[in-house]
Amino acid sequence: MPAMLLVSVLGRKGPASVKVANVALVTVSGLEVVGGTLEDMGNGEFLVTVTKVPAGEFVVLLNGTDVVSSTVFQRQSTTQMSVSKVTIKAVVDRSMEPGKTFTLPFTVMTDTTGGSYKISARNDRDFKMNVPGSIAVTTGGNATGELTITVPANTPSGTDVTLTIEAVAPGATADSNYAVLRLSVVTKVTSDM
């Protein structure tokens, strides 16, 4: 399955002092290398698209040129990563209204061990929320929960709210994933005709 990642690169004299040539995902064993296509987003940020993500743990490997010294460099991420076996999905099909409570259903799915998955959520406007502390997911299955957001009555119409919902699997591995949603507050207009 294709994936995208945003890579930020900073040279000795700022982002303009490096040229990135290649970015790849490399398994820890070194047996699999998945090269990516680069799109320069400016200011030292590159959008990398890979055709697939390696199974198991991998690192990000980057090659390029230091423009200041005209030397070739190679960098590797210090953290080993892997694809989460936890998926969390939520669909926003309507806007929120000032002074009203908004209910948002979400689904947690797993390709691995089931159990009690810890759920947390936050929003960038500090609106009051009720979030289930956990949700029971069957092995290889899914479960649905819902959270509520109370929008203060004095919230201006047109306000955007960024909501992050996270699900953490039980056990020592603590595999997790999150969904980021953008919600809008819109005052409902009624007509007396």
UniProtKB/TrEMBL annotation:
The coiled-coil segments of this chain are none
Domain VWA7 Ig-like intervals: 86-186
Taxonomically, which superkingdom? Eukaryota
Tell me one Pfam family matched here: Ig_VWA7
Q: Which residues form the signal peptide?
A: none
Q: Give the protein's recorded name.
A: VWA7 Ig-like domain-containing protein
Native source organism of the sequence = Oncorhynchus mykiss (Rainbow trout)
